[in-house]
Structures are given as C-alpha cells and as structure tokens.
Design brief:
Distance between the termini: 32 Å
Radius of gyration: 22 Å
Order of helices and strands: HHEHEHEHEHEEEEEHHHHEEHHHEH
Helix content: 25-40%
Strand content: 5-15%
Shape: globular
Oligomer: single chain
Bound molecules: pyridoxal-5'-phosphate
C-alpha cells in the first residue's frame, strides 16, 4: 500500500534549519534583526520603492492595512465571496461591512465590471484577491477606485511571486498588498504575513499598531542609545509582530521564491498536458506579461464527466491522493449567510465555481512520481465512475462519452 500523498507540504531545506538554529543561538527570538533583514529583502524583492512590514499572518496584515487606511464603523469594503473568510472577517473587526461582488467564471477573480454597481456612499475600499496566484484585472479596478476616491488593498495571500502586465504584484498603484506565509503557501514561515505599501503614513501606522500601539518596538528599544525602558502607547494596538524565528525561515524561503515558482509552473504545465484528454477543465493561464505564482492548481469537473465533486475527492483519497476545495464561497457559510441574509444564487458564478472545483496537489516537494500518481488517480477516478454508471469511456477522444 502506497503512502498517502498529502494535499500540501512545505519545502524546508537545510538553509532554513541553519538560519533558525542561528536565531536560537543568538539569544534574540522575537522581532529583531532577522525580521529587519526579512523586511528589507522582501521590499527589494517586490521593488518599486515599497516598504515591507512583517506581521504574524496575512489576516493581521489585512486588518492593519484597512485600519490604517481609516476603514471603520458604517463603511463598506467591496470584495469577493470566492475567498477565505480572513479576507472579509477583518472588515467586520473594524465594524465595517463587506460587500460581495461575484467573480469572473474563467479566473475565479472578482469581476471588475460588477464592482462599479456595488459602490455606495459608504464604500471606502476595494479588496481584490489574486485567486490561486493569478493576478486580478487590476487596471480597471484601480481606475474605478480613482474615479470614486476609494482605497485598494490587494489580498496577495496566494500571489508570491506573481506579476501583472510585467509588474510585480505589490508594486502596482494600490494602497497596500498583503502576503501570507502560512504553512501551505508558496513561501512559508509556518505562520506569517507581510504588508507592502508605498504610503509612508500607512506604513508608520501599521508599524505602531502591529505592536500594541507602542511607538518603539523591542528591538529598537534595546539597540537604540535612548533608554530601553521608555516607550509611549499612542493607540490601542494589536499583537501582530512576526518573531525572528519565523523571519529566519522567511529570509531563506524568499531566496528560493522564483525557483519555487518555476517548478510550480512546470508542474502546472505537466498537469495541463496530461489531463487534457480526461475532460476536466484546466485552470486559466495568465495573460501575456503576467506571471502566475501557481499557489493552487484548481481543475473544474465538467458536467459531462457526471461525477459529483465530493465523490471525486473521496475517490481520490481512497487512491491515496489528498485534494482540497478552494473555496467554499463566503455566502454559503452560516455567519456570512445569516449576517447579510444571503442565498446561494446571489453570487451564482461563485456558487457554480465552488460546485465543480477541485484543487489538486501542487507543491515543490512533490516528485515526478508523486505527480504521476495524481494524474493516474484522476484518470482512474473518472474512468471508474463512468464504468460504474455503465458508460463507455473514451479517454483518447478527449472526452467521456456518456
Ligand atoms: C485568500 C486568502 N486571504 C487571506 C488568508 C489568510 O492568511 P493567513 O493564514 O496568513 O492569515 C488566506 C489563507 O489561507 C487566504 O487564502
């Protein structure tokens, strides 16, 4: 019996381990020199003169960015229902309301054409999510924001590294971009996140608010010539700072980020080629000038395959392959559904996308043989379902004949 192939695994090498050991030996565990280095290197990686502020999750980063931009009670923030709840929950933390706008069914990204209709006198910001690591159509989103005087905060939890029209996500003309270093992300620190912004005032507010609203962080207090004990609380802040233990991992992971992206792109291309005859719909490809981070490889099960998505995942698990679903749209979850009286058909394209979407394993720790296993399992699952239903199967003809 072969071992189970998990849906995702981090790619941690000896470099990360050595850097963490170095941090442990250094005596400085919380936010300190490794975090300062990680932020500096991250800012350089993104380019465009951005500042980078490390936080302990993307959720924290999104919260801080919206808070720093002045989103508060009574405000509305336009976002997508096709995301993880973190994107929208932080809006609620600030007493504001998310206003959901349905997706482009091809990319699963927010549909810019629908954004304008959702704007009201309460709208303060637009929060697009680069789903799976494929850039949203940012030009129209930025143009709408300019026209209505709105802020734009990008949820780039999936998008490291990714580009839009030749420019790095994080270096576009938006107010802030937030990354996640959660364990399954393209670059990880276990838990962690980064705020990237070119707005000096916002950066300063985030810096202070990530550590209790204290004007000086611990490292600054202990390395500066001013007395270490003196600090001032200037606001009721949060405990969102990233530890040096986590930043040590991040410093080494970041060096590998483009290598990871190339490997993921290669693997995505292999899935595209080898699943082409199975009748599953492959994920969309980036436009010319865009780079996909390939955080996720999300296939859609065509209706003609006549296999229920949940059934598909269960059969794949029985064959030893872990799959996942990104995402259960927010309006289907009890909290969001009841809070805003939402029905599945209110966002029909998100609902439809959810019902057919399966995320296949795609990570750099996978071997060629692991990927072969996934491909074979997809073929076997489709073939066995069809056979059980008494249907003739013709993989060679590029579709399943029912
Ligand atoms: C789209 C999106 N936004 C935000 C987050 C939150 O990231 P974190 O776990 O770093 O807070 C996630 C995490 O999965 C996500 O997928």
């Amino acid at each position: 019996m072969k071992s189970f192939l998990p849906f995702a695994l981090p790619d941690i090498g000896e470099e990360e381990i050595a850097e963490v050991v170095d941090t442990l030996r250094s005596g400085w565990l919380t936010t300190g020199p490794k975090t300062v280095a990680f932020e500096k290197e991250f800012a350089a990686f993104i380019g465009g003169g951005a500042r980078a502020l490390a936080v302990n999750s993307a959720t924290a980063g999104l919260h801080l960015a919206l808070e720093g931009l002045g989103v508060g009670p009574g405000d509305e923030v336009i976002t997508t229902p096709y995301t993880f709840t973190a994107t929208a929950e932080v809006i609620r933390h600030l007493g504001a309301d998310p206003v959901f706008v349905d997706i482009d069914p091809r990319t699963f990204n927010i549909d810019p054409e629908k954004i304008e209709r959702a704007i009201t006198t309460r709208t303060r910001a637009i929060l697009p999510v680069h789903f799976a690591g494929l850039a949203c159509e940012m030009n129209p989103i930025i143009a709408i924001a300019r026209r209505y005087g709105l802020k734009v905060v990008e949820d780039a939890a999936h998008a490291l590294p990714a580009t839009y029209q030749g420019r790095m996500i994080g270096a576009l003309d938006t107010d802030a971009t937030i990354y996640s270093f959660y364990a399954t992300k393209t670059v990880t620190t276990g838990e962690g996140g980064m705020i990237v912004t070119r707005d000096g005032q916002l950066a300063e507010r985030c810096r202070v608010m990530r550590l209790h609203g204290i004007s000086r962080d611990a490292f600054d207090r202990y390395t500066s010539t001013k007395p270490a004990w003196r600090y001032e609380v200037v606001a009721p802040g949060f405990k969102y700072n990233l530890t040096d233990l986590a930043s040590a991992i991040g410093v080494q992971q970041l060096k590998k980020a483009w290598g990871f992206q190339r490997r993921r792109a290669e693997m995505a291309a292999r899935y595209d080629a080898e699943l082409a005859d199975t009748g599953v719909i492959p994920p969309p490809h980036p436009n010319d000038g865009d780079t996909h981070s390939w955080h996720l490889y999300v296939i859609r099960l065509e209706q003609q395959i006549r296999i229920n998505r949940d059934d598909f995942i269960e059969r794949m698990a029985r064959l030893g392959v872990g799959c996942s679903v990104h995402f259960i749209p927010l309006h289907l979850h009890p909290y969001w559904r009841d809070m805003y009286n939402l029905q599945p058909h209110h966002f029909p394209l998100s609902w439809q996308a959810y019902r057919s979407a399966v995320s296949l394993p795609l990570y750099t720790k996978m071997t060629e043989a692991d990927q072969t296993r996934v491909i074979e399992a997809v073929k076997e699952t489709i073939a066995s379902t069809a056979a059980e239903k008494g249907q003739a199967v013709s993989l060679a003809q590029g579709s399943i004949i029912l």
